[in-house]
Specification:
2-enoyl-CoA Hydratase, Chain A, domain 1, 33% helix, 13 strands, alpha/beta, single chain, 3-stranded mixed β-sheet, 334 residues, 6-stranded mixed β-sheet
């Protein structure tokens, strides 16, 4: 099957009944094509089957992507989850009056890039040499617009997004520091984007430090928060075992998928420096803890530039000011 033998459940194709009711002359789905941790590349039919889908298809598609392996699918088109969505559209939605408007947004975080310059320069974002990469990263702009129903339009958008939204590096990174805006990231459910988007660039035995001044809880709702606190980010094998034996996690596969996504599988160290969560709580979910004030003094977001930075004591880090703006990976893998 599409999971490579990791799961054996059926996935029902569920969408909001209004889409197939016949009451609309035209249904327009609008969204951005960008690397995505569940399906590989966001949008197109994902907008329908997740954005307008039922709980079971959402939960099971997320779990399918997680057990297949985030690092195998992110930034790529033909993932197992995308194959499920393609099948659903071809078999069940071909007759509805659906059209897509797909955008690709360029930011300074994407494009080719990155070996450290002698002075610790920022990422070469494929822009003019006299333009600051960090400044460009704050000014996203639409660089592609695709309208229609044919899959080839999505494929063209994927190719452009891969060119504009992937930051490809020549060598793995030993230490990555990610800053999470406190107004946007208040949970690890959202904040773990720092892990998803950088993990493909981190060296075995490396470290990811996540500076999260706004972090207050783990889940975005009480149920998910309780499940994360109970099980923690323990890795794929443990989560698969718990899904087989524990009813609460088996009945919330989106939470199980999140727990898999948030683990480095023992490959690199993940350290959180949270604003409102204790060291004991962080360590309970299998992350390492660092004091926020100490990390902000050492890695001042106001002083760092996106990309390579050399600290006063000679430590070299790779800094990411907003993990939502791209995907960082090794050039050889693409």
């Amino acid at each position: 099957g599409v999971s490579g033998g990791r799961v054996d459940f059926p996935i029902p194709i569920e969408v909001n009944k209004r889409l197939i009711s016949g009451q609309y002359d035209l249904i327009v789905s609008i969204g951005q094509v960008v690397p995505h941790e569940v399906v590989g590349m966001a949008n197109y039919s994902k907008n329908i089957f997740v954005g307008c889908g039922g709980k079971e298809i959402i939960d099971k598609s997320h779990f399918l992507g997680a057990v297949y392996g985030l690092e195998r699918l992110m930034g790529r088109d033909h993932s197992p989850v995308r194959k499920v969505f393609d099948y659903g559209e071809e078999q069940f939605l071909s007759d509805i009056p659906l059209q897509y408007i797909l955008t690709v947004v360029a930011t300074g975080q994407g494009a080719p890039a990155s070996t450290p310059a002698a002075a610790g320069a920022g990422v070469d974002a494929g822009v003019d040499a006299d333009v600051d990469a960090a400044a460009v990263a704050t000014a996203p702009r639409i660089c592609g617009l695709y309208a229609g129903r044919e899959r080839q339009l999505f494929e063209a958008a994927v190719r452009l997004s891969q060119a504009r939204n992937l930051c490809l590096l020549d060598a793995p990174l030993k230490k990555v520091v990610v800053y999470l805006d406190p107004e946007e990231f208040k949970s690890t459910w959202l904040g773990n984007k720092a892990i998803y988007r950088t993990r493909m660039a981190i060296a075995d035995g490396g470290e990811l430090l996540i500076i999260a001044p706004g972090l207050k809880h783990f889940g975005e709702d009480d149920l998910i928060d309780a499940l994360i606190r109970k099980y923690g980010y323990a890795g794929t094998d443990k989560v698969l075992e718990w899904v087989e034996t524990e009813d609460d996690l088996r009945n919330c596969l989106s939470a199980a998928a999140h727990l898999i996504h948030g683990s480095s599988e023992g490959r690199f160290k993940i350290t959180y420096a949270p604003g409102h969560v204790s060291a004991a709580e962080i360590e309970q979910v299998h992350f390492n803890y660092a004091p926020l004030d100490d990390m902000l003094r050492r890695y001042d977001p106001q002083q760092l530039r996106d990309g390579f930075n050399t600290m006063p004591d000679g430590e070299q880090i790779f800094y990411v000011s907003n993990p939502a703006l791209g995907l960082w990976a090794l050039r050889d893998n693409f």
